Amino acid sequence: MQSGRRTGPVVKRANELVVSQFENDSETCDRRRMSESRNIALKHPITRKAASGRQIDMAIRLFDEREYACAITLALAAEDQLPEPSNNRAYLLGIMRSTGTTNQVDVNKIRNWLKHDKSPDEVGISEFDVFISILRATTKYAAVHGENTDTVKKFYRWVKQEGFDDLKFAPSS
Predict the structure, then answer these.
(1) Is the pLDDT of residue 170 over 50?
(2) pLDDT at 28
(3) Residues near 93 by beta carbon (within 8 Å), at least 6 away in sequence
């Protein structure tokens, strides 16, 4: 590389793979950010609170854009990286556990399918699946941090407006 950056064999092989994928691709990148010069070695500091908040905000945005697989993946990644609340505040997955829901239903079935190479090759994802994933993340974030992002507040207003704030999550007897 002419920029003076050192490259190891892994980076060199990755570059070869990328180049081979697009050898016959004559399209140019029309996205401004993709065409900017970047220092990909520069570290950008971020806290766990900020990272999980951004993941949740993006999950909500992706839900709105009907990108359901990505929305679930980000929402539940945010939930996973948050610690258990130490203040006894309620959050959806904790409620599901305490009511026995997690013993009756695989609450992580879609998340695990999205993360791992598992059969079947195709599953159905409902908006309800995404909705619950986002609620799991947002309620745990609020339980841990005592607040929510502006995007989450807008999402909650939408939940109330649509009448989704009166759902019963415990399985029926």
Answers:
(1) no
(2) 60
(3) 79, 102, 107, 136, 139, 140
